[in-house]
Amino acid sequence: xxxxxxxxxxxxxxxxxxxVTLEDRKSPGTAGTERKRRxxxxxxxxxxxxxxxDVSGREFFxxxxxxxxxxxxxxxxxxxxxxxxxxxxxxxxxxxxxEVNHLSYMRDYIRLKCRSVKGGGx
Length: 122
Hints:
- The protein is mainly β.
- The protein has strands spanning 11-26, 34-56, 59-62, 65-68, 71-77, 87-90, 93-101, 109-116.
- It has one domain: Thrombin, subunit H (Beta Barrel).
- The strands form two sheets. The chain has a six-stranded antiparallel β-barrel with strand order 1-2-5-8-7-6. The protein has a two-stranded antiparallel sheet with strand order 3-4.
- Residues 57-66 have low confidence and may be disordered.
């Protein structure tokens, strides 16, 4: 693996994690009773610097249609909390994390293999 230098981390990305919040609401048919409901959304976890590289611009044919699969990797400084439920936002695009590679667990960098999420999902 090539040595990564701080100057290679030219891109600014936002790491987004799933958020579960509790919401107060009135129960229908019950006067004055409130209960909690879980609502899933997304929240910004951190904004970090990254190196971005294209893995695949591969095209494949499925049902007589051409589909483009946009897969990229982001290399960031090591963080212990990222997993594949998180997403990455960069340049107006949202990417789902397919794989978190800790690069031999040296605790210096992490490589995130990501796929573009159509429609943003956020």
